[in-house]
Amino acid sequence: MTRVKMANNKRHIGFLGYFLRFINIVLIVSLFISYSAQWISPRHFWPIAFFGMAYPALAILNFLFVIHWLFRRRKFVIYPAISILLGISMISRFVGTGSNVELSNASTFKVLTYNVHVFGRYIKDHQGETHFERNEIIKFVKEQQPDILCMQEFRNLNKGDKENNIQLFSEQCGFKYHFEERYTKKSTSFFQVIFSKYPIKNSGCISSITGEDEITATYIDVEITGKIIRVYNTHLQSYKISSDTYLIRNSLNNLDVSKTENQEKITRTSKHFAKKFKKAFEKRASQIDALKQHMDQSPYPIILAGDFNDTPSSYAYGQLRHDLDDAFVETGSGFGQTYIGPYPSFRIDFILHSPELNNHQFDTWQIKYSDHYPISAVFSLNN
What is the pTM of this model? Predict the structure, then answer.
């Protein structure tokens, strides 16, 4: 009788229970794969990069299953809980809990990086003023007074005062020195630029290891309070899908067509985007390898700033941060989102630095003069 009662008291799982367990197992495995995305190069297996991108969603879904199993009183709760706990350090990359460090009497310098999206070139007469975004960005930089300014997607035409933006920033923002490099040899107006208030001792640029024409990063060596610091400014390969928004709209609209036609349209759109993502993943991996090789040979402490076009759970972040510290993780707070374009994103702009540098303050500036937010960090030298 006792065994019969115990059997009756056992809760029947049923089809739905087994189905939810199966879904949770898939999510747990996917979460573990997302952890490995930071170490496996997309050049060897490009689909893994999607798992890295999906980490936040996978972590949230597993957390929801933890809550579900707690209420269902299932022992299965231990599995999604362990999968989240094993990657607990990943959460700090997305949500900052740091605070500013007291400056004491340290001699500090400020680094600011900003993808300016060619100063709103594709926005016609915004706010009734042709150069509205550029002029507002100049005002912002003058207010912030950074000692070093890294800018990506910088438009410069060298045509008089209105279009010679390098000269404008240098004169109006108090930068005596700068180093610029065109994105490609054929490019006439788009640059990566580093402005500095410190004399530039040396400078150069880095190309992808595949020998492609487009530059991966620029760098300068500056002397600060008697010590040489190397500052890298990078803009890694983007997905280049902003112009394809209409494809998504066309795939979602007019769904009253026949089922076969609808499936074919979705398939074509999916293949189109898969090819773009694959190309971006692989090209970015080559750029990362080239940049990392160059940084490993640096004789000086490093600051790496710029637009990675990838999240903190990506191969880009995992490889480039390997021997560096993340200023946001140390002293940043909040969610840290930096991309504000038409597609959902997270923190894709970063300031990383060598341990020889002390990070005192990190800020994300929520101004909307580009499709990115600028970020800044305050450093001092570790004596």
Answer: 0.87
